[in-house]
Amino acid sequence: MTVTAPERSTIEATLRTQRIELPSWAFGNSGTRFKVFAQAGVPRDPYEKIADAAEVHRYTGVAPTVALHIPWDKVDDYKQLADHARSLGVALGTINSNTFQDNDYMFGSVCHPDARVRRKAVDHLLECIDIMDATGSQDLKLWFADGTNYPGQDDIRGRQDRLAESLRIVYDRLGPSQRMVLEYKLFEPSFYTTDVPDWGTSLVQCMALGPKAKVVIDTGHHAPGTNIEFIVASLLRLDRLGGFDFNSRFYADDDLMVGAADPFQLFRIMHECVKGGALDADSGVAFMLDQCHNIEPKIPAQIRSVMNVQEATAKALQVDLPALVAAQASGDVLGANAILMDAYDSDVRPLLAGIRERMGLDPDPVAAYGRSGYAERIARERVGGAQAGWGA
Ligand code: LRH
Ligand code: MN
């Protein structure tokens, strides 16, 4: 399938302006309840996390912002942290709240039966907005572990009312250019009900708040077999897609490298994004990674993950949309499917390598990072102190 010149330049322009936000916590140690393995050279503080994220941007050219997680990335001076990021060619991005690690939150945070606990959680979310004011971040990302483990433990409807009441306070505190993006998750750590378990619940809560509240799709937060691109198309249709937490999984919330477990699913998601205008600069759709590199080296894993998103995007941009629309309109089932598979089966790696070269980058970012000696340097220099992880 030949791509005519104008299309090639449009595809290149889209790939050059693609922006993928990195999670600070991916550079720290992470694991499961069984074990958190430590790795040499892991950052000890947010400054070192941002330095590692800047390496990913240095070799990919499309990852210029770093999402923070509070309190994991708590510092005395967020302006100083923002200046540090800028000095490394990146910027501070989405602020992630954390109401899932305090003992008071055993029965929930913003949905907790006790108003004092809800107030404590809301105060943390308001503190996150104060941090956004200091860092210049646009998005407050909310994910709640809130839920129950046994039938009867609490009132499902009552918890939704408490959630709505708590979110209203936070929404009304947002600045004019700030947003709140609400992430859903089917289960874990709660195993009977989760108060924001699916896109419908997040959407209903967001629509009740106002236009600055949008839904986040974490690709690891669905029941097996869920058609995630259907959710993408539906939320784009309603202009309520705030963004993605990209990762992949074979079973549950595995937080593996995006595209590693199911590259075809990522392609189908990016196809809906291309058609739905989510890649347009003003779409308001944030593309973030949310991953844990429990056993693999973290910086190359982030570089590979960014490349996986680029490859899925480049394949989606290859879809001959006019032909697809025509085949769909004429009921040409096999023809329509073949047009999509043709794009998916195309090898976009030479195209991306060429684009990197024209951006002044090495065509092979992982190899270039490997040759840089950065991994050896941080392993040598970062001795002593406590390695960062999911602890405060
Ligand atoms: C919850 C989640 C959420 C984050 C956390 C790091 O599973 O996806 O986005 O706050 O992981
Ligand atoms: Mn997530």
Features:
binds manganese (II) ion; two-stranded antiparallel sheet; single chain; alpha/beta; 392 residues; 45% helix; eight-stranded parallel β-sheet; binds 6-deoxy-beta-L-fructofuranose
Describe the protein in words.
- Strand 1 (22-23), helix 2 (46-60) and strand 2 (65-69) form a beta-alpha-beta unit.
- The model has no long low-confidence stretch (mean pLDDT 97).
- The protein has 392 residues and is α/β, with parallel strands linked by helices.
- An 8-stranded parallel sheet has the order 1-2-3-4-6-8-9-10. A two-stranded antiparallel ribbon has the order 5-7.
- Helix 2 (46-60) packs across helix 13 (365-372), helix 4 packs parallel to helix 5 (156-173) and helix 10 (321-329) runs antiparallel to helix 11.
- It has helices at 5-16, 46-60, 78-87, 115-135, 156-173, 199-209, 228-237, 263-275, 298-317, 321-329, 333-344, 349-358, 365-372, 374-381, and strands spanning 22-23, 65-69, 91-96, 139-143, 147-148, 179-183, 193-194, 213-218, 241-246, 286-289.
- Bound molecules: 6-deoxy-beta-L-fructofuranose and manganese (II) ion.
- Manganese (II) ion binds next to loops.
Number of helices: 14
Please tell me what the overall shape is.
globular
Number of strands: 10
Described by strand count, sense and barrel closure, the largest sheet is: 8 strands, parallel
What does the average pLDDT come to? Answer: 97
Chemical compounds bound to the protein = 6-deoxy-beta-L-fructofuranose, manganese (II) ion
Overall radius of gyration: 21 Å
**Helical residue percent band:** 40-55%
What structural class do helix, strand and pairing data support?
A: alpha/beta
Residue fraction in strands = 5-15%
Can you list the strand order of the major beta sheet? 1-2-3-4-6-8-9-10
Uncertain parts? none
